Inverse folding.
């Protein structure tokens, strides 16, 4: 096989491409909805002539999305949305085997991370596809020279959607963006079942900890927190939930979990995982009370959820105990273990969400890109939901692929639901 790239790229090693291609093909088998959309894209070419800058986790599932967009006519440059989430063999294969310019290396430093995003922006995109809003943020600050050519974009994750809403509220957002994260077939499944399973996968892979019998603290009871708590309980852990939202806290109680403040949980927890999208959720006042051997990890998009500078201040030394495990020796002799540099552990130490759940998320991405090309002229520069008909279509296609059938309303039922006169 050739070991040279036909398109611009910055990847770790093109010789890894054979492994990446096999894994991309393996993931594709579990992505039937995206396969269906890809066939339609090949036939209809809805993205013909569109330049796309994509800032996403460079995984096997993302690779299949990129191939689908390419086959729909798009000219793509892909970069990583997190320094530790790239699968180097996938990046190599995308470049060598599929002709998709990829700028991503697992473990890249901050300078390389942003230079790779700049490389995607240099593509002068018509469409942006972001995961965390770093690409969009740079476009609106340091690279305004490219903004006029951008017609629309999509955003994959909760953190990015929050940032985009803040931009729209301040009146600085320059083009319409669809919040793919908020599609029901994304957050109810990807965030819940995907994050739940893949987070535990990452924790177990890098620590080999037995979860059964541990006190497992989940910070945040959104869709990601719900999924994580459920899976941890399924593995035999005693799950504790911390929250700031009283409604979500009540839900966690009703779901059978112990709910308390992080100040209380810090004293008794064995494993702590943040999934809030906020910063300093675990901080000095919590580290000071954690037991010897406590493990802290994050599965939110950015590594700010754990106050790592505070952990460093409290420690007399730290070392790498295992791959993706840093041991911080506190000045009082306790040890606290930080996983994956505080970055999203499900991608830092594992492979991210299973392909079967990303199938729905990336089907939403592909269909949203098609919708934006067709409708961008009528949209204002704000954050939009995925159109309901697209969301429901993804669900129907997934059910069909799973061999499941559902009922339809009878004419009588439709008439009853549409009226108001028929009573008891």
């Amino acid at each position: 096989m050739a070991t040279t790239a036909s398109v611009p790229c910055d990847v770790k090693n093109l010789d890894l491409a054979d492994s990446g291609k096999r894994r991309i093909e393996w993931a594709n088998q579990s992505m039937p909805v995206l396969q269906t959309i890809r066939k339609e894209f090949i036939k209809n070419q809805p993205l013909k002539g569109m330049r796309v800058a994509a800032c996403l986790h460079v995984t096997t599932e993302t690779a299949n999305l990129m191939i689908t967009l390419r086959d729909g006519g798009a000219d793509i440059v892909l970069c990583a949305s997190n320094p530790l989430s790239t699968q180097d063999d996938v990046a190599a294969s995308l470049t060598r085997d599929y002709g998709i310019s990829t700028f991503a290396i697992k473990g890249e430093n901050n300078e390389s991370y942003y230079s790779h995003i700049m490389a995607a922006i240099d593509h002068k995109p018509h469409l942006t596809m972001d995961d965390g809003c770093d690409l969009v943020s740079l476009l609106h600050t340091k690279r305004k020279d490219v903004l006029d050519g951008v017609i629309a974009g999509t955003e994959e994750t909760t953190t990015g959607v929050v940032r985009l809403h803040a931009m729209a509220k301040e009146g600085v957002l320059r083009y319409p963006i669809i919040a793919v994260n908020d599609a029901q077939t994304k957050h109810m499944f990807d965030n819940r079942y995907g994050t739940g399973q893949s987070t535990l996968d990452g924790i177990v892979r890098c620590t080999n900890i037995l979860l059964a019998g541990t006190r497992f603290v989940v910070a945040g009871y959104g869709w990601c927190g719900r999924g994580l708590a459920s899976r941890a309980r399924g593995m035999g852990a005693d799950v504790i939930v911390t929250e700031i939202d009283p409604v979500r806290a009540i839900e966690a109680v009703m779901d059978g979990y112990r709910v308390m403040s992080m100040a209380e949980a810090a004293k008794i927890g064995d494993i702590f995982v943040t999934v809030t999208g906020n910063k300093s959720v675990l901080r000095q006042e919590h580290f000071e009370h954690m037991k010897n051997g406590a493990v802290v990890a994050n599965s939110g998009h950015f590594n700010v959820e754990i106050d790592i500078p505070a952990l460093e201040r409290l420690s007399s030394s730290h070392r790498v105990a295992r791959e993706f495990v840093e041991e911080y020796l506190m000045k009082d002799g306790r040890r606290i273990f930080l996983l994956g540099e505080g970055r999203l552990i499900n991608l830092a130490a594992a492979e991210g969400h299973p392909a079967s759940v990303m199938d729905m998320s990336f089907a939403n991405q592909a269909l949203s890109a098609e919708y934006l090309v067709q409708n961008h002229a009528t949209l204002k520069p704000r954050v939009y939901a995925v159109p309901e008909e697209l969301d429901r279509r993804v669900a129907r296609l997934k059910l069909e692929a799973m061999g499941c059938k559902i009922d339809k309303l009878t004419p009588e039922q439709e008439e009853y639901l549409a009226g108001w006169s028929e009573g008891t």
The chain has two domains: 14-186+352-401, 194-348. The chain has 17 helices and 15 strands. The longest strand covers residues 315-322. The two ends are 73 Å apart (CA to CA).
